[in-house]
Amino acid sequence: MIRESFNGGWEFRPKVSSFAELGRGGAPWRLVTLPHDAMIGQQRFAPDGGSLEGGASAYFPGGTWEYRKTFFVPEEHRCRRVLVEFEAVYRDAMVYVNGDYAGQRPYGYSLFRVDAGRFLRFGADNDIRVEARAHRDSRWYTGAGIYRDTWLLTGPLVRVGPGGVRVTTPDTDTERAVVEIATTVENDSIAIRTPRLLTEIRDAAGNLVATDACQVSVLPGEPAIARQRLYVRTPALWRPDSPALYSARVTLTEDDGEADAETVTFGIRSLRLDPDHGLRINGETVKLRGACVHHDNGVLGAATFARAEERRVQILKDAGFNAIRMAHHPMSTAMLDACDRLGMLVMDEAFDVWTSAKSDFDYHLNFPQWWERDIDAMVAKDVNHPSVIAYSIGNEIPETGTPAGAAWGRRLAEKVRSLDGTRYVTNAVNGMLAVLDDLAALRSQPSDEAGINTRMADPGDMMNAVSSSDLVTRRTAESFSVLDIAGINYAEARYALDRDLFPNRIIVGSETFPTRIDGNWRLVKQYPNVIGDFTWTGWDYLGEAGIGRPQYATADGTQPGFAAPYPWLLAGCGDIDITGHRRPASYYRQIVFGLRDQPYLAVRRPEHHGKTWTGTPWAWSDSIASWTWPGSEGAPVTVEVYSDADEVELFLNGRSLGRKPAGDSHRFRAEFETVYQPGELFAVAYTGGTETGRHTVRSATGPVRLRAETDRQVISAGDLAYVALILTDAAGTRYTIADRPVGIEVTGPGVLLGFGSANPSTEERFDATEHRTYDGRALAVLRATGAGKIRLTATAAECEPAESIVTAE
């Protein structure tokens, strides 16, 4: 079918009932271009100010929104099929065409289509309206509205069905690959039709490498599947370090000419899995260096743009990750495309809930009636993407500890396998949540029963202790048995245990604490049946406010709460902040992975020196790579040095502060106590007495300057450019303690799509033209609306204006 973007020309507004609007009219409509997040522009509220959602949604209020669009349908489309495709609408979408109900989708992450043809006026303008709502239905910031791409699909009566070309590579080696292509052909005419089907495979350079043709007879109203086996000689295999891609074009031809055509992209690769070699891709064992990520794009809210997804994947890969677990919902098509191109492996996850609620009005209300259709949608979206290696059927589902839950797990796993038998099925199981109803009884057991009583003070130790108990072993055995890979959340204590108890069990750390990556990765390397680790999280995100924030004991011993109060906005955890800037934890992880041989130096904020740390296991130390602390001269300060070397030596203004051991046996880190003096701080790493690397941080000096750094100078119309606004000195050293408001003006064929910082607690908005920097940084995102030069001018107090010019072609 012909696919055209349907993103332009929409209007939206908050929705009230038609009865409430009688006599006074409704809220004004506002023109928008999709993708669009209706929630990110709302006014946040403290809990006593009217927000029912609270910290889970970053204190954004829920609501109901409606979108409308007028579009012309030519008369010649009367004999064609016309569909509207929504890659996702959050949530409880209702679609109306010319006032008539055309379709709906409760789940906010599923691709769905509505058949518009039954309601259209041909040769005339037509109206489409979409309603979406969000209200206490998630544990994180979801956004709302039509936040992913929309498409208008048109095709003849005999056509390739939408999403109807599926490619698998069941038999692959370096000499040749079998490429099996299953094409669904639909026939809405009143007669049997027998079109000719031609399939052509081309490599990345456009060279034709395989072809096949056949006839396919299609009965009226009864789709037919044409299955072809093609052979590609000396294939370029898709792997994370060389993600080679091919295209397959399927063309339907009848006596009167071409009827329809469809082109898909795919990769040729093989997957193998066993407890002795773990996961093998093209015969080579691969350990998953994984990041869990949510779907929001920081200052853009939930709006999903191809460039935003590509940028995230590239930054994550540059930081040392080779796998993403999309938590806890299906990944966008745009991110899947980026993972294919850049070589990032994917674990795509279906659901966060099944039949038990985690929020008052979440998907559990729809799951029993809709789960099969949503599984269908996820697999259909993923099936041609070589980056996808596993489907996760759930996350921390409480039912997994019950027989009924195990039955549900078996049902979901078999459904996935019936749709795609080429990939593996997992489920991210939290053993403690699986036995939560028995936790009180477990705590009363003697301390030699998994050490529960002595470990309750630390959440990480508690989860490990409970999850490694005999109770969890018994209660989750069946739920794990229905899977190809046992996803284990926060329970690395099970790795060695299960190696003995369940020798055929393949394990992945589907969600783990960032503070434990050194020990976790040691276990991943030690046990062949443990195929990887996925940290929570790779990228900071909106909502779950403050779960990873730095916390310290108060003078009266009061323990701070799990969630942070308003105006906290972000979770405050993640190797990478919401602007795409790498935090110290990211460099530490890269060293643990063995991907960085240089040391890394980070400094804890002096104002907290001497305080007792009480942060959660998701919280990294309150440190940044800075030696600019004006006002703290002579104050004590703690310096962290990360290194895989035997030992590290710290120097302050040329004076040695001593050597300390580092490396694996010391958790890849050393800590030094000193006092702050402006100047230069550097660390030197030694192995066997020989220097292996160094890292330096310097104090910023002199007047503060405002710099604008653009990720790309040339973009296409509709594409995005990211502009970092940074406060520095003349030498380019960032001023981390000189934050101030920065104002933005954009001229030319472009708009300011989002503007903000990584400040985890702020009342500032992302849709404003002024935002205060955080640790000396802010980020502006531009969208090109046409061809020409887009000029961004940034101003800040006591700084010369900074300018960035982006050319849109």
From TrEMBL:
Kindly state a single biological-process term from the GO annotations of this entry. carbohydrate metabolic process
What Gene Ontology molecular-function terms does this entry list?
Answer: hydrolase activity, hydrolyzing O-glycosyl compounds
Domain Glycoside hydrolase family 2 immunoglobulin-like beta-sandwich as annotated: residue spans: 167-269
Q: Which residues form the DUF4982 domain?
A: 634-692
Taxonomy, superkingdom: Bacteria
Q: Is the keyword Disulfide bond assigned to this protein?
A: no
Identify the SUPFAM superfamilies for this entry.
(Trans)glycosidases, beta-Galactosidase/glucuronidase domain, Galactose-binding domain-like
Provide the Glycoside hydrolase family 2 catalytic domain boundaries. 278-440
Residue ranges annotated for the Glycoside hydrolase family domain, each copy included: 706-803
* InterPro entries on file: Beta-gal/glucu_dom_sf (IPR036156), DUF4982 (IPR032311), Galactose-bd-like_sf (IPR008979), GH (IPR017853), GH2_Domain-Containing (IPR051913), Glyco_hydro2_dom5 (IPR040605), Glyco_hydro_2 (IPR006101), Glyco_hydro_2_cat (IPR006103)
Task: Give the keywords, sorted.
Answer: Glycosidase, Hydrolase
Q: Which Pfam families match?
A: DUF4982, Glyco_hydro2_C5, Glyco_hydro_2, Glyco_hydro_2_C
Per the record, the similarity remark reads:
Belongs to the glycosyl hydrolase 2 family.
Q: What is this protein called?
A: Glycoside hydrolase family 2 protein
Query: Which species?
Result: Trebonia kvetii
